[in-house]
User: Which sequence fits this backbone?
């Protein structure tokens, strides 16, 4: 079905509380269409794309759900009756979503493999169902109630099994530390993060680091008072290796000096852009934390694609950076790839997979392109979604290749507007799983975050509730309103005092 920027779907919904999930299901099929809700009694011209959903409470203790749709002159309708006493509001909402999904599948002649699942964390749901009802129940629920394909059900089962040793209830005082360095050499076409190019923001870096040091020291003081237990550290961005070697050393020294590292199982830093990596910086990383986990991210080994997405390095630069890291003794390297980049195709993507398997890092994170509104690539409109048909082939090739080299899937998350409505997956050799990735995606414990754009997520022990503390997004805001950030950080103390 052709997609145009003018495409619009109007939705008539008798039960407004279901609007959020209904819109998410529609976006599975029409990620870049305009979707608007109108009053249920409004007249809609038959020439307009529309979906009409009526949830009718009958007097005989039954609920009848009726869904009809007309999309590009293709019509369909479905009806289902359920008993009130057997259905909660969430059950009814799911039934509505399933009917909408089935109708849109038939109209578009597609069957998205994650079914009606639209959340970021499907493995978290799969695990929760398994804990309470068993693995077979989880698989059956995913397949028959959520309409997830056998392929994705099995992927979820494998990942959940590989995560099990990390998913055991941690100490209620355990946490991970995230540190944001929101600067990059340049902005990639697909990027939607709040990061700034060094050319435009280099003057801000010294002041930013000075205040970041203060926030880290203040945070460490609170952590010490509360006797919290540090499990992992992740320095991300942005591209932390845009910093000079002495700046990197100072930053890491502040962490190691002020936080109790005895319980820390993992220290990760993103060195994402090979053009920011030097031997001197790598030595700083290795000497600061001997088992440091470093992420060197090629995204693709296709030089033409690198130019298209605004990267200022070549695939050979990535290889050189990797070899330098090995030379200085770094033995835990992750590499990120993206399926569906503009200019890429199945053949060149396969070449990328084969190249990374020749290099053989300890872990590989395979993303699928997500076309976010804040990214430059969004301006290409719906043309980018023409890649959808090849995405499945790309992922199948990669997923079939990784296990042959002893990589196993260990974490997964999904994003809105992903090509092919697919997923991002982390693959690792045994013993090299990125535990911070598991902790943050499965929401195992609190993530205490410092720096611009950082979001602290405080998890209540034995509860599935998260309280968030937001830092200001932009580095100039972080600098100009730093006192407010320090004040907000005090919320961490208030949160944990309840559990003392």
Assistant:
């Amino acid at each position: 079905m052709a997609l145009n920027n003018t495409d619009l779907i109007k939705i008539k919904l008798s039960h407004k509380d279901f609007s959020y999930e209904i819109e998410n299901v529609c976006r599975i099929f029409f990620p870049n269409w305009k979707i608007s809700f109108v009053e249920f009694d409004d007249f809609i011209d038959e020439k307009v794309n529309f979906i009409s959903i009526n949830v009718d409470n009958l007097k005989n203790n039954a609920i009848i759900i009726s869904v009809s749709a007309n999309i590009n002159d293709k019509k369909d309708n479905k009806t289902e009756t359920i008993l009130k006493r057997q259905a909660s509001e969430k059950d009814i909402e799911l039934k509505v979503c399933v009917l909408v999904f089935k109708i849109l599948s038939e109209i578009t002649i597609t069957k998205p493999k994650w079914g009606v699942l639209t959340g970021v964390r499907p493995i978290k749901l799969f695990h929760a169902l398994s804990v309470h009802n068993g693995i077979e129940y989880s698989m059956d629920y995913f397949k028959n109630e959520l309409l997830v394909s056998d392929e994705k059900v099995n992927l979820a089962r494998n990942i959940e099994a590989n995560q099990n040793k990390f998913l055991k209830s941690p100490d209620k005082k355990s946490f991970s530390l995230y540190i944001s360095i929101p600067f990059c050499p340049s902005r990639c076409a697909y990027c939607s993060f709040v990061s700034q190019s060094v050319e435009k923001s280099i003057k801000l870096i010294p002041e930013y680091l000075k205040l970041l040091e203060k926030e880290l020291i203040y945070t460490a003081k609170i952590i010490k008072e509360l006797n919290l237990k540090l499990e992992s550290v992740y320095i991300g961005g942005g591209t932390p290796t845009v910093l000079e070697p002495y700046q990197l050393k100072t930053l890491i020294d502040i962490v190691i000096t002020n936080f109790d590292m005895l319980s820390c199982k993992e220290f990760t830093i993103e060195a994402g852009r090979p053009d920011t990596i030097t031997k001197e910086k790598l030595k700083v990383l290795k000497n600061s934390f001997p088992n440091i986990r470093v992420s060197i991210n090629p995204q693709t080994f296709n030089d033409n694609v690198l130019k298209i997405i605004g990267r200022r390095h070549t695939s050979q630069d990535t290889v050189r950076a990797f070899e330098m890291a090995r030379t200085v003794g770094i033995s835990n390297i992750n590499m990120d790839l993206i399926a569906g980049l503009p200019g890429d195709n199945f053949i060149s993507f396969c070449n990328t997979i084969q190249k990374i398997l020749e290099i053989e890092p300890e872990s590989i994170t395979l993303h699928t392109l997500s076309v976010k509104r804040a990214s430059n690539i969004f301006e290409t409109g719906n043309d980018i979604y023409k890649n959808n048909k090849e995405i499945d082939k790309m992922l199948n090739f990669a997923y079939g290749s990784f296990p042959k080299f002893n990589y196993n899937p260990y974490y997964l998350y999904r994003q809105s507007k992903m090509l092919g409505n697919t997923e991002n997956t982390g693959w690792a050799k045994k013993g090299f799983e990125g535990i911070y990735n598991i902790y943050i995606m499965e929401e195992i414990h609190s993530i205490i975050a410092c720096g611009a754009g950082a979001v602290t997520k405080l998890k209540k022990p034995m509860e599935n509730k998260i309280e968030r503390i937001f830092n200001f997004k932009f580095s100039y805001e972080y600098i100009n309103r730093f006192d407010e950030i320090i004040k907000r950080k005090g919320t961490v103390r208030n949160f944990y005092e309840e559990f003392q």
